Amino acid sequence: MDLFAADRLRLVEALPPRLSPKERRAMDDAWDAAVRANPTLFDGPVAGCTGLEHDARGGLVLTWARATYRFYVLRRLPGASAGLPSLFVSVAQPADDGRLLVGRMASWTASPGRWQLPGGSVEPPPDGETLDLAALRRHAARELAEETGADTPADGLTPWQVTRGANGSVGVLFQAPPRPAAWLHDRHATLTATEHALGRTPELDRLALVRTPADLAPLTGPHVSYLEPVLRRHGRSWSGDGEP
C-alpha cells in the first residue's frame, strides 16, 4: 500500500482501456455472473484510474477514464491485459478524542461486511465539466452525509492522502473536522431510522471508532487494505491535546 500527500494532486482525463473482442466477452460474462449472485449491482458510470505518478514539479498526477462498473471485473479475470483500477474518495472523520470513524458495508452492497472509511467510487462529470480536486471534495462530502448522516460541507474537508493498493486502485482521502463521538453516533442512528422507515438499509449498517490498527481486531469481518496504514499515519499526526 502506497501513501502520498494529496495537497498537490492534479487530475487528467485519459482514454478508456481498449479491449479485444475476447476480453469484452469475458468481461460481459463475468459481470452477468456477478449480477446473478448480487442483483443489486448496477452497471453505472464510473471514473476509473489509469495511472498515478509524480510530475517534474513534485506534484501528483492522476489520470482517469470514463467507464462503467463492469470494467472492474477485468481485474479478476486470468490473463486480462486491460484491467481498470478503481478510483474512490474517502473521508477520515475523527471524533474529538482522535479516534477515526469506520463503517461496515451492509449485506446488499458489493462488499458486504467489509469495514472502511466513509466514501465511494468516483463518478465521471457531465460532458463539459472538469473532474478536479474540488469535484472530489464535493463527492466526498456527499458520501459522508449519505453514509453516516454527518453533513459536513465540502469546504470543511481538507485533502489529506492518496492511497494506491496492490491492485492499482487509488483513493483520495479527505480529513473532516473533529466531532463529538456521541454526535456521530446520533447522526447515524437518525439516518438509519429514516432509511428503515423507507424500507431501506443504510450502506454502512454499523459504525465504530478506532484509534490504531489493533482496534480493528475486535471488528467482525474484513477491512480495506488502506485502513491500517491510514490509521498509523493518522495516529502520528494527532497530538495528545486532542488536535490534529
TrEMBL record:
Which spans are transmembrane here?
A: none
Read off the Pfam families from this record: NUDIX
Which InterPro entries does the UniProt record give?
NUDIX_hydrolase-like_dom_sf, NUDIX_hydrolase_dom
Q: Which residues form the signal peptide?
A: none
Keyword match Hydrolase: yes
SUPFAM superfamilies reported in the protein's UniProt record = Nudix
What Enzyme Commission number(s) does the record list for this chain? 3.6.-.-
- Which residue intervals define the domain Nudix hydrolase in the entry? 81-244
Top enzyme class: hydrolase
Cross-referenced PROSITE patterns: NUDIX
The UniProt keyword set, sorted, is: Hydrolase
MF terms per GO, please? Answer: hydrolase activity
**Name this polypeptide is given:** NUDIX hydrolase
Q: Which organism is it from?
A: Streptomyces marokkonensis
